[in-house]
Amino acid sequence: MDDRALLQRINELDTEEQGLYRQAEAEYGLNEDEKARLRGIEVLLDQLWDLMRQRRARREFGQNPDGAKLRDATIVERYEA
């Protein structure tokens, strides 16, 4: 996946995530399936942003950005700010 496709996917997921957040704030909130989907989107967005950071770092240091790999959610979700 090149940077353009990666950013497009991130934007699509962000739009869906924002829609679910808006729905969650509404009177009826989210059902269990929607809550699970929201959590899945949050994790996938973290993974995709991590992949984008890897690609940028590889490019910065003269390496092929296509060598970056999507990391497992358990790894990405353990990052601390």
Summarize the helices and strands and which ones pair or pack.
Elements (H helix, E strand, L loop, with lengths): L2 H23 L6 H29 L12 H4 L5
Helix pairs in contact: 1-2
Polypeptide structure, described:
With 81 residues, the protein is an all-alpha fold. The protein has one domain (3-76). 69% of the residues lie in helices and 0% in strands. It is built from three helices and no strands. The chain has helices at 3-25, 32-60, 73-76. α1 runs antiparallel to α2 (32-60). The longest helix is centred in the middle third of the chain and has 29 residues, at 32-60. The radius of gyration is 15 Å and the shape is elongated. The mean pLDDT is 93.
Biggest β-sheet description: none
Radius of gyration (CA) equals: 15 Å
Low-confidence stretches: none
Distance between the termini: 26 Å
Oligomer: single chain
β-strand percent reads: under 5%
**With helices defined by DSSP (H or I, 4 residues minimum), what is the helix count?**
3
Number of strands: 0
Q: Give the tally of structural domains.
A: 1
Helix content bin: 55-70%
Shape: elongated
Please tell me the overall pLDDT.
Answer: 93
Order of helices and strands: HHH
* SS content category: mainly alpha
